[in-house]
Amino acid sequence: MPERVLITGGAGFVGLHLARRLLRDGADLVLLDDFSRGADDADLAEIRRHAVVVTHDLTTPLPDRLPGKDFDAVYHLAAVVGVQRANEQPGRVLRTNLLATLNLLDWCRAHPPGALFLSSTSEVADGALRAGLSAFPSPEALPFVLTDPRAPRSSYALSKIVSETLFLQQDTGARVRIGRYHNIYGPRMGRSHVIPEFIERALSGANPFDIYGDAQTRAFCYIDDAVDATTGLTRLGGAEPIIANIGNDREEIRIRDLAQRVLDLAAARPEITVHRPPPGSPDRRLPELSVLRTVLGYEPKTDLDTGLRETFDWYARHRPAGTEAGPR
User: Domain 4-186+221-249+285-301 is of which CATH architecture?
Assistant: First the structure.
């Protein structure tokens, strides 16, 4: 019998790539999205040919008659994400993300799935690392520390750690898997993250080329590797909850060097102008992956050069209408 799967936020970045993987594996899919951020584009149109897509705002209760109540797995990816949104609309971030989790879990109590996966974030560890409670790479077993509760950006980390707690305390009988995503990137990830922003500036011929942060470092994980880890965790048997970092710990890179790699792909040579990073932006992100390696034998497969090329080429093919490449 095919695996029956529900994905909330199924029209978003991770959701669509996850849907493609599950369809290749022969799953029966239902995607739920309110399309406030997820795109109803040609990529989703291809998915619609093989899956049920339901438009629904998760700040309201889920419909009882959702297609395919008896799900083997529910992947909860729906959330308001992004540094800009957290800084500008912290109340919306908290309200939307918590209501989405609460309403989904209420529905799952009435229609228990076999497994529940929650997409969480590296930001739940940033406070403890900033407070010096651990060295890098950052493990999962850190306490949650909110170093500045009044900072708008804190709303996102807070919404995710509360969602994690709600998942861990849920009473549906489902096995719980929580993946803390660390700087996942790839085609169709929107245009408000550092890699697509760099790509767009490079393609447009921006000069000077603005970057925010210079010596800050990140370890980026290509979407295919993140999906491997996500499906592997969710399908893993055993009743005990698992919290795992999902990322790539092999190629930590300075933001300035990342910008240079993108400019090299565009054959562009602008002047680079460095600005201060956004408020609350951590100096470093590097995940420890011992949980994934222990339970799945996970190793990231896509090196940064390959992933950046795939991502760059996708954005070059999908530039907004009327946009032309600028001078090199």
Answer: 3-Layer(aba) Sandwich (3.40)
- The question of whether 212 is a catalytic residue gets the answer no
170-68-238 Cα angle (round to 5) = 40
Q: For the chain, how big is the Rg over CA atoms in Å?
A: 19
Q: Which range (57-61, 82-86, 177-181) has the least confidence?
A: 82-86
Would you say residue 327 has pLDDT above 50? no
Taking a C-beta distance cutoff of 8 angstroms, is the pair 256, 214 a contact?
yes
Give the pLDDT of residue 279: 83
Angle between helices 304-317 and 255-265 (to 10 degrees): 50
Q: In what order do the strands lie in the sheet with 115-121?
A: 52-55, 28-33, 4-8, 73-76, 115-121, 175-181, 242-246
Q: Per the residue annotation, which of 156, 222, 298, 315 is the catalytic one?
A: 156
* Domain ranges (residues) in the chain: 4-186+221-249+285-301
CA distance 189 to 170: 30
Q: Is this model's pTM higher than 0.90 or not?
A: yes
Q: In DSSP terms, which residues pair with 269 in a beta bridge? A: none
Q: What percent of the chain has pLDDT over 70?
A: 97
Is residue 190's pLDDT more than 70? yes
How far apart are alpha carbons 287 and 282 in whole angstroms?
A: 13
Q: How far is 151 from 161, CA to CA, in rounded Å?
A: 16
* pLDDT category of residue 213 using cuts at 50, 70 and 90: confident
**Cβ atoms < 10 Å from Cβ of 70:** 9
